[in-house]
Amino acid sequence: MRKFKSNATRDTNKGKISYFGFRHPLVEYSFGKYMLKHQKQADGQMREPNNWWGGWDAKISIDSLTRHIADLECLHAGLYVYKVRLDDGEDTVVLPEKKNPLPKNWEEVSKEDCLNAIKFNCNAYLLNLLKATD
């Protein structure tokens, strides 16, 4: 038991999950910004923040995860990665030099973006796995 100066008592923290200790506010803020940015769909509509909770086939998460890891590897090697929005989807362009100015519908990808995308796909895959064991 823990006893405080106010005479309040509480059980010990032993064996309890320390959510605050396992997450860092700066990382969660970065992830939140990333997710907010990606709530806007290609058609301009905003999706619900938790719409991914319904899940999808794990292959979707693995495919996306693998693409984002490849982008991160390129950035880590000193290359520049750009996402290009096309009428029928998206393409990735990898260049040895920075493209300046960016053409219309081009967006530079950062390591932060890659890591947040990887985190999201890991979360979606894990949720898929956890829900399968229910």
Descriptive keywords:
3-stranded antiparallel sheet, alpha+beta, 134 residues, two-stranded antiparallel ribbon, 4 helices, 43% helix, 16% strand
Q: Outline of this structure?
A:
This protein has helices spanning 19-22, 25-37, 58-76, 111-132; strands at 2-3, 9-10, 80-86, 89-95, 106-109.
If you had to describe this structure to a student in words, what would you say it looks like?
It is a single chain. The chain is α+β, with helices and mostly antiparallel strands. The protein has a domain at 57-132. It has four helices and five strands, in the order E-E-H-H-H-E-E-E-H. It has helices at 19-22, 25-37, 58-76, 111-132; strands at 2-3, 9-10, 80-86, 89-95, 106-109. The strands form two sheets. A three-stranded antiparallel β-sheet has the order 4-3-5. The protein has a two-stranded antiparallel sheet with strand order 1-2.
